[in-house]
Design a protein that fits this description.
Rossmann fold, alpha/beta, about 160 residues
Length: about 160
């Protein structure tokens, strides 16, 4: 069962590699993948990762066909290591068309008790689950979510009393 985030809950998400690639090569600053990265940069949610995920990010983002600047890649990966959470998931008995996608699913499943999301631009690569969403769907969730520190400020605003 998926946990619906309430105001004050922290948002957690596993970000599929295709979302990062789309964000880094997009020329549209308002595209959903770009907005997902901006939301992470602005601490609206915490990225969940595993070393296998980080290895895939590193390999894919450095592919010459994407023409992504090394400094930009290193900054992003460092930000994920610094501000994300490394998860060691329990193995799941699941089959995927691409076995490399299993780790993304397993990491998201490991934090389902805290309402973790899996954000992907390739919905067909994953089973139909309520916690697996597109970048646009995730931004709709994140945009309507109040982070704990904002909730604290709203509840302790002396000017409104």
């Amino acid at each position: 069962m998926i946990k619906v985030p309430k105001p004050g809950d922290r948002l957690y998400a596993v970000i599929d590699t295709n979302v990062l690639v789309s964000a880094l090569i997009s020329r549209n600053p308002f595209s959903p993948p770009v907005r997902v990265l901006q939301a992470f940069d602005n601490s609206k949610f915490t990225i969940l990762y595993h070393e296998k995920i980080m290895a895939e990010y590193t390999e894919v983002l450095h592919r010459p066909k994407f023409h992504i600047d090394d400094e930009r890649i290193l900054t992003l990966l460092d930000n994920i290591y610094t501000n994300g959470i490394n998860i060691t998931p329990s193995p799941r008995d699941v089959l995927f068309r691409d076995p490399k996608d299993v780790i993304f699913y397993e990491v998201a499943m490991e934090k389902q008790d805290e309402g973790a999301w899996l954000v992907t631009g390739n919905m067909k690569h994953f089973p139909v689950e309520k916690f697996i969403v597109t970048p646009k769907e995730f931004m709709d969730i994140a945009d309507n979510h109040i982070e704990p520190w904002r909730l604290y400020l709203l509840n302790n605003d002396s000017s409104s009393k």
